[in-house]
């Protein structure tokens, strides 16, 4: 098989890439119009790692910009709702719910979990991941004056439900 033919075969397996008559790749949004409407949900997380025992101060409300968790929650909800505008090939979805949990999973790590759900033709994984990521960025923005070494890590999908593939869960 020639390199050009291998490339065309590989491109055909990608749902968001089409090829024109000359075999060039062209981005496209997948047509989900024929898919059935089903209940779909997703759970994602992001972790914010604080140096020098700062997390306890932040959770006690001693951050320089105020109520960190509540501002991050609102930012995450807004981001999840706008995922279709931020990620080029995502379909705009009418989310039924976006919810957040914030938990200190050890002395220096704040875990942010974002859950999303809707009835639709495509999943809500990107909305959950976008919400978690933006909430984590907001936590960083609101606490960076304490120490710029704060870092965000592990933005990932934990589980999803709905669609033809059915439920999926990351082994925790």
Protein structure class? alpha+beta
- What is the 3D form? elongated
Kindly report the spatial arrangement of strands forming the biggest sheet: 4-5-3-6-7
What is the second-level CATH architecture of the largest domain? 2-Layer Sandwich
CATH topology description of the largest domain: Alpha-Beta Plaits
Q: Mind explaining what this structure looks like?
A:
It is built from 5 helices and 7 strands. By secondary structure, it is of the alpha+beta class. The chain folds into 2 domains: 30 residues, no CATH class; 132 residues, Alpha-Beta Plaits. A 5-stranded antiparallel β-sheet has the order 4-5-3-6-7. A two-stranded antiparallel sheet has the order 1-2. Helix 3 packs antiparallel against helix 5.
Helix and strand layout, with pairings?
Blueprint lengths: L2 H10 L4 E3 L5 E3 L10 E12 L4 H6 L8 H14 L1 H4 L10 E10 L2 E12 L4 H19 L7 E11 L6 E2 L3
Antiparallel strand pairs: 1-2, 3-5, 3-6, 4-5, 6-7
Helix pairs in contact: 3-5
Concise structural overview:
The chain is of the alpha+beta class. Helix content is 31%, strand content 31%. A hairpin with a 2-residue loop joins strand 4 and strand 5 (109-120).
């Amino acid at each position: 098989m020639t390199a050009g033919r291998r490339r065309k075969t590989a491109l055909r397996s990608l749902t968001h890439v089409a090829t024109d008559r000359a075999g060039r790749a062209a981005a496209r949004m997948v047509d989900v119009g024929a898919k059935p409407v089903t209940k779909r949900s997703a759970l994602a997380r992001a972790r914010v790692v604080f140096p020098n025992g700062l997390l306890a101060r932040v959770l006690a409300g001693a951050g320089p910009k105020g109520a960190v968790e509540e501002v991050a929650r609102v930012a995450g909800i807004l981001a999840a709702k706008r995922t279709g505008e931020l990620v080029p090939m995502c379909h705009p979805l009418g989310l039924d719910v976006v919810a957040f949990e914030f938990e200190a999973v050890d002395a220096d790590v704040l875990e942010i979990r974002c859950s999303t759900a809707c009835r639709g033709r495509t999943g809500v994984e990107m909305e959950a991941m976008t919400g978690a990521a933006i909430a984590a960025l907001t936590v960083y923005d609101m606490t960076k004056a304490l120490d710029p070494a704060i870092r965000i890590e592990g933005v990932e999908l934990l589980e999803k439900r709905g669609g033809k593939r059915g439920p999926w869960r990351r082994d925790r």
